[in-house]
Amino acid sequence: MNTFGQLFRVTTFGESHGPAIGCVIDGCPPGIAIAAEDFAHDLARRATGKTRHTSARREADEVEILSGVYEGKTTGTPIALLIRNTDARSKDYDKIVEQFRPGHADYTYWQKYGIRDPRGGGRSSARETTMRVAAAVIAKKWLVEKYGVSVRGHLAQIGGIIPKSFDWNAVEANPFFWPDAAQIDELESYMDALRKSGDSVGALVTVVADGVPPGWGEPIYGKLDGEIAAAMMSINAVKGVEIGDGFASVAQKGSEHRDEAARDGFLSNHAGGILGGISSGQPVVVSVAFKPTSSLRLPARSLDVHGNEVEVVTTGRHDPCVGIRATPICEAMLALVLMDQALRHRAQCGDVGDVSPRIPG
Amino acid sequence: MNTFGQLFRVTTFGESHGPAIGCVIDGCPPGIAIAAEDFAHDLARRATGKTRHTSARREADEVEILSGVYEGKTTGTPIALLIRNTDARSKDYDKIVEQFRPGHADYTYWQKYGIRDPRGGGRSSARETTMRVAAAVIAKKWLVEKYGVSVRGHLAQIGGIIPKSFDWNAVEANPFFWPDAAQIDELESYMDALRKSGDSVGALVTVVADGVPPGWGEPIYGKLDGEIAAAMMSINAVKGVEIGDGFASVAQKGSEHRDEAARDGFLSNHAGGILGGISSGQPVVVSVAFKPTSSLRLPARSLDVHGNEVEVVTTGRHDPCVGIRATPICEAMLALVLMDQALRHRAQCGDVGDVSPRIPG
Amino acid sequence: MNTFGQLFRVTTFGESHGPAIGCVIDGCPPGIAIAAEDFAHDLARRATGKTRHTSARREADEVEILSGVYEGKTTGTPIALLIRNTDARSKDYDKIVEQFRPGHADYTYWQKYGIRDPRGGGRSSARETTMRVAAAVIAKKWLVEKYGVSVRGHLAQIGGIIPKSFDWNAVEANPFFWPDAAQIDELESYMDALRKSGDSVGALVTVVADGVPPGWGEPIYGKLDGEIAAAMMSINAVKGVEIGDGFASVAQKGSEHRDEAARDGFLSNHAGGILGGISSGQPVVVSVAFKPTSSLRLPARSLDVHGNEVEVVTTGRHDPCVGIRATPICEAMLALVLMDQALRHRAQCGDVGDVSPRIPG
Amino acid sequence: MNTFGQLFRVTTFGESHGPAIGCVIDGCPPGIAIAAEDFAHDLARRATGKTRHTSARREADEVEILSGVYEGKTTGTPIALLIRNTDARSKDYDKIVEQFRPGHADYTYWQKYGIRDPRGGGRSSARETTMRVAAAVIAKKWLVEKYGVSVRGHLAQIGGIIPKSFDWNAVEANPFFWPDAAQIDELESYMDALRKSGDSVGALVTVVADGVPPGWGEPIYGKLDGEIAAAMMSINAVKGVEIGDGFASVAQKGSEHRDEAARDGFLSNHAGGILGGISSGQPVVVSVAFKPTSSLRLPARSLDVHGNEVEVVTTGRHDPCVGIRATPICEAMLALVLMDQALRHRAQCGDVGDVSPRIPG
Q1: Residues C109, D345: contact at Cβ < 8 Å?
Q2: Is D130 labelled as part of a ligand binding site?
Q3: Buried (b) or exposed (e) across A70-87, using 16+ Cβ within 10 A?
Q4: Within 13 Å and on the Cβ side, how many CA atoms surround A279?
């Protein structure tokens, strides 16, 4: 199942070290202005090879629009985007062609399909997420232009480090998408030490959508939060998803959690902008847990395809903390979910109406 | 979207206080022995009205099989199950017909559809989950008979209380699905005090599937964990889902998290049985965060449908901790996901094969 | 696959001689006024037992609305409709429980599922189409109220008899949905003779949708004509579907077939209102070929479930020409397709716009 | 909706005069041997520019495999195929950029999307069908290797000309896929005269699948014949589809139509291999009606995008009979439907079993 979305459908293809990766976007509204250059900004935010804190692989990530756009505008027909892979170094993987790397999908792909492309992790590589970010560029554009909906994200934890202050303006000004400018030095040192140790660490990403109108989401099995959860969990290395207060709700009292409202608006947002699977008009807040990268220089025990016990050491180029670059990917998935739900909402209920009373978000 | 699943498709219908609830199960393999009595056990585990710690509503929950079963066996045609509502007390809701209860879906349904059935929460009531449990009875039966897969669950936290020891045998022997028999008195007292206070509390449920063969799950957008996340998040009051170590992974090192393997089997299960979206053969472990019930006797501020500020007090019959009865519902959703993925796997790859080497789970 | 439609989704269930038949309609727009009585008219048009020219089975076909309607209006949640079977006479089928009736689905269901419900044809009975007609009542209502789209149909051929004149007013005034009032006596005699002979005959049904706005239909694999073809072919006994001139196009020249247009409108409608899979604004015209009923009193050669050769004679109650009652069923399917496409169109392109120039239909 | 199939899902993209056309095949079983050369044969059968009886456009139709194949075998991940357009002559279309060509999709795309790519018909061009033929190469390979199912087709009528004898061996030996070698001269003359006249003509294509096991097809709304009808109707210029005797069934008696069976096999195949939407084990026989090409040198009345009446003359390069090259396209669609149904069947019912008794096809 390589298609995401019910009505704004993104089908991705491509392996880490194959000739190309790409996607087909089907169901896109006509008339959206889009050009190849529009993809550059978000793809660069996701790209490796720009700081020493991410993998050294450098891909140009140049997007070719193969269809669906005429004279600079979407036509309603499928939009195919293509990116050639240019910096794959498959020989890095020679050693592990026959080994199942612990914590990786090597063994499970092998068990499922009886065959796998081991070069760079093949289809299970995070290289695939490039196309999600590309597709979401179109979704983000439509969401903001048509409904004033914007999506942004930040890192909320690396290992044991948590932001001490919060400033959206800081987020894009450092390589960690970190909201506290005063902690950047600490993070640099932490990551340098981690890289030297050959180990890796997990991370927490938070994404927020502002301006979402009330009413998006399809009960019961197409709930907004349900689809967000699936979307985030589909990202490589994700082990948990929560909406609003999430797991903290477990220890809360009802009198504390439920968000009261007055004519001026809601008095809190423990729910993270979603009630009964439908957006409330408050900001949609999602947090995503990333496990530490499994590709380590530190040796580990495993088996090979012949059933022999082996000691696996992963060289190649890897992120010591995959969560860092995951921020734009989480944004992308949230944007794709919202775009899809927007179309589904107007299919059943017509465009966003003026149902009253409207509680300010 | 009231259908769950791609190939084992469960479509539910019905409102809390409507004449009936029901479901249609499509895509079910033929030849499964099933009778009306088979549903009783799991429905009773989910039912209210059996202890003072859940809602006082008492429903007979008698299942009528309307189609798809002939001479005691499924025929491959759609199976319709029907349960008449018998203990709805809609007049409890008279006061709130025009009020938006904080933390409930009242406002969001109103904004989405411009109309809502306020009786007992209408479609957004957890009454709907009865049919998930019913449908999962068939899935559980098939999974265990055909593949030896079993699904079970337990409560892992209520408010701030955490089990001090763990025993699967204890779980079904108390009304809390609690794994530590020694804490039952404490929980009873806690819940009694909570109920008297008019407040509610959150809970954590953990469900585990044993015997899942390696290879189930469809990368990239139909991953086993992605579909589990969506499934759990579709349950009323859920605010978070995690697989294996989940959010704890954020603070872990890669050397700690990645599960090594030897010929005798995996050496740990931080991954919760899923790698790259595909089952590894280890137990699938899922934890689900439930928020505290929003229906409280304690007054709260909100608006009514005319835009006036109101003070909402919820009488009616409610669970002080919805998470308690959620254990069989979480099991049901996990079973439905696994059944669906089993069918999807054999569609693409044929039946579960004997790909070697197989690492013991 | 017992669900029809992508966004206006109708899932039917039930066997010919089971306790009930029913359907769940999901994705229905909220706010449509609907009551149990609304179904009576179209169900009566489809019903057997009203003239000697159809099967003698008499079903009350009383619709119970189980969900999705509150205070007389659809709420956007799934609408479940239930009809109890009251006049099933399963003992008529005793003889053929173990026989494969020629021209029936007995053998193919057996081969597919390894089990079948033989009573009255089980799931393969045309009894199932009752629910299509019921579901389409809601679709027809919405289509005419919101867009002014109306759907109607008539019989266009029985055996070798073809209408000599055409009058829509005649169609509902005779039991054959026949457009030429002067031929009714001829048809009565023909059908009486046929019934006495124990044989059956095929028929041709034509359905027309007026007022369809230009723009409905989703290229390439969700074309309006593609979905109509699937919809019609899903009806029992259908062997062919054509749009507009259909098979007659084979012998036509391009200069004859292509519909020219002037400012006042199109100059012809060979295309049957669809070009490139999208409605043109002209009437949508569909013809459907029904094979003769396979249930005959005349003996035929076949096998039984043990592999023995047998002589099959079908008693029971059957239509000598299934095509007659098929007219409202074909209308229903056309309405369901149009409703679904209307929702899909407004999802991607917004509501029906005022793209100019608009050529009168 | 540019995706065909439920489990073997083919998503196509690309415009007639865009940089490329392509497709993504998702859900393909792993382990199928496939190479770029495998596509050449069928693509050549579909290609234009090879005889004077088809359009003069000459495309190399070289397939690049972008993903999903590793060391010559499918891996179970999405297979992306790309063909660059090399012989598009968009200036041929300058005149009609603002005109709605009669019988074409120009007007309906304009009305649906408010924008259209007029170059060569854009997305509505039959150029798209190239990718169906490419995708079906994989399906055909799997069907024949795994189940012994083969698909082939022939032209059954051009204008008023009908084959006088039938020989499968003749079909591939002439440019018309015509089964009667003795008529080729007549057809050549007919087509030459037609081309000179500037007019076009319709055609009838028949495709047959041999070796289909009994049991494929999903009642009620995923019937084998329903999906075939949709598949064929999705091909450019198709106006009608019939299974087995099709429209001829209208004038038949039941005693004539129903296919009797003996231990040695079925005694006839009026049903065209499908009963109740499920394959019977007999050959699946489908006929498809193609309208005459609408692109003519003969002038026709229409409007332009400003609402002015215009006289349209189509130059460019066109087929005087689109039905001729449609034979491999119809084969492709039948193969895609069968492959998809094969996967769906084994999902629900397991692999093709040995249900007895089996009636020889």
Answers
A1: no
A2: no
A3: beebbbbbbbbbbbbbee
A4: 30
| pTM for this prediction | 0.97
* Nearest of D349, D266, A288, A223 to residue B230 by alpha carbon: A223
| C139 and D CB contact within 8 Å | no
Report the alpha-carbon distance of residue C227 to residue D229 in Å, rounded: 9
Task: State ipTM.
Answer: 0.97
According to DSSP, residue D115 is labeled -
C159-181 pLDDT, tens digit per residue, is 999 999 999 999 999 999 999 99
pLDDT in tens, B191-250: 999 999 999 999 999 999 999 999 999 999 999 999 999 999 999 999 999 999 999 999
Q: Which amino acid, C263? A: R
Name the residue among A143, D103, D123 with its Cα closest to residue C267.
Answer: D103
CB D49 within 8 Å of CB D32:
no
Ligand-binding site membership of C294 (annotated) = yes
**Contact between residue B315 and residue B192 where contact means Cβ atoms under 8 Å apart:** no
Rounded distance between C-alpha atoms, residue B100 and residue B312, angstroms: 8
Name which of C3, C101, C104, C107 to mutate to probe chain D: the one with the most chain D Cβ atoms within 10 A of its Cβ.
C107
Residue pointed to by tokens 């929560």: A242
Instruction: Find, among C184, B277, B38, B44, the residue nearest to A238 by Cα.
Output: B277
> How many other C-beta atoms are found inside a 10 Å radius of the C-beta of residue B308?
12
**Is the confidence at residue C89, as pLDDT, over 90?**
no
Q: How far is residue B217's CA from residue B209's CA, in Å, rounded to a whole number? A: 14
At D302-323, the pLDDT tens digits run 999 999 999 999 876 678 899 9
**CA dist., res. D83 & res. D60, Å (int):** 9
Q: How many residues does chain C have?
A: 361
Give the bridge partners for B25, in sequence order. Answer: B10, B79
What is the C-alpha to C-alpha distance for residues C318 and C297, in angstroms, rounded to an integer? 10
pLDDT band, residue D89 (cuts 50/70/90) = confident
Interface size, chain A vs chain B, as Cβ–Cβ contacts under 8 Å: 388
Amino acid at A278: I
* Partners of residue A28 in chain C, C-beta under 8 Å: 348
Element of type H or E holding B256: helix B254-257
C-alpha A241/C-alpha A227 separation (Å) is 11
Alpha helices in A62-206 (DSSP H): 106-113, 129-147, 168-171, 184-197
Neighbour-count burial of B119, counting CB atoms closer than 10 A to its CB (0-12 exposed, 13-18 middle, 19+ buried):
buried
Instruction: Kindly list the structural domains of chain A, giving each domain's residue range(s) and its CATH number in brackets, ordered by start.
Output: 3-349 (3.60.150.10)
Cα–Cα nearest to A249, from D311, D248, C351, B323: B323
| Touching chains, B (3+ CB pairs < 8 A) | A, C, D
Chain D positions in Cβ-Cβ contact with residue A36 (cut-off 8 Å): none
**Which of D239, D270, D357 shows the shortest C-beta gap to C243?**
D239
Q: How confident is the model at residue A54 (pLDDT cuts 50, 70, 90)?
A: confident
Which of C345, C346, C355 is best to mutate for the A interface (most A CBs within 10 A)? Answer: C346
Q: Which helix (H) or strand (E) holds B113?
A: helix B106-113
- What pairing do the DSSP bridges indicate for beta strands C274-275 and C238-243? unpaired
For residue D274, the cross-strand partners are D279
CB-CB neighbors (< 8 A) of A348 in chain C: 7, 27-30, 76, 343
- DSSP 3-state of B211: coil
User: For chain C, which chains pass the contact test of at least 3 CB pairs under 8 Å?
Assistant: A, B, D
Q: Is A206 annotated in some ligand binding site?
A: no
3-state DSSP assignment of residue A277: coil
CA distances from C40 to B245, C31, C36, C346 (A): 57, 21, 8, 30
CA distances (Å), origin C112, targets A14, B346, C115, D262, D268: 36, 16, 8, 20, 21
